Amino acid sequence: MEWYIHKGAKNCSRCERLFEEEEEYFSALYDTDNAYTRKDFCLCCWDTNRQNESFSYWKTKVQKKSEPVQKYAHTEIFYDLFVRSENEENVSNINFRYVLSLYLMRKKVLTLLSIDKTDGNEFLIFRNLKEDKEVKVFNPKLDKEGILAVKEEIGKLIGIA
Ligand SMILES: [Zn+2]
């Protein structure tokens, strides 16, 4: 499971100015009515209010046109989303968290310790190697197609596929 960064043109959600080559900007995810939306902001339009309202954010940069497509998404973005989704309980969030845990396991940020089955529910117990603590992830029992759909949804949000 990998994600690839898209190159496409982007503009600021506030002033609508198109970002220039190599320009730095902020991408932020907002949790609205149990769905995430992504907005991009130029450095001028980004402020602490936007930062505080966001669910997760990161600073990024428009790639040079001559540069090859960046191959892999940053694990830190996924890790941040994973950590922030810990206490969220809506369905899309539970699915996100599960798929992100599979990805982080592949990236050796999480290791699977055990599977906890109680009352017909299954939880994956991981060790978070970054913070050296145990984390519990609900297994929504997605099939292969379900996992792929969630992966696509996350990719779309972050601007990668
Ligand atoms: Zn702007």
What does this structure look like?
- There is one protein chain.
- The chain has 161 residues and is an alpha+beta fold.
- It has a domain at 88-158: 2-Layer Sandwich (Double Stranded RNA Binding Domain), CATH 3.30.160.
- 29% of the residues lie in helices and 29% in strands.
- It is built from 4 helices and 6 strands; from the N terminus they run ββαβααβββα.
- The chain has helices at 48-53, 75-84, 91-106, 144-158, and strands at residues 24-32, 35-42, 56-61, 110-118, 121-128, 133-138.
- Strand 5 (121-128) and strand 6 (133-138) form a beta hairpin.
- The longest helix is centred in the middle third of the chain and has 16 residues, at 91-106.
- It starts with 23 loop residues before the first strand and ends with a helix.
- Residues 12, 14-15, 17, 41-42, 44-45 line the site of zinc ion.
- The site of zinc ion has 8 residues, from strand 2.
Q: Helix and strand succession?
A: EEHEHHEEEH
The Cα radius of gyration reads 17 Å
CATH structural class of the domain at 88-158: Alpha Beta
CATH-scheme architecture of the domain at 88-158:
2-Layer Sandwich
Fill in the CATH topology of the domain at 88-158: Double Stranded RNA Binding Domain
What is the rounded distance between the termini? 11 Å
Instruction: Write down how many β-strands occur, each being a DSSP E stretch of 2 or more residues.
Output: 6
Taking pLDDT < 50 over at least 5 consecutive residues as the criterion, the unreliable ranges are none
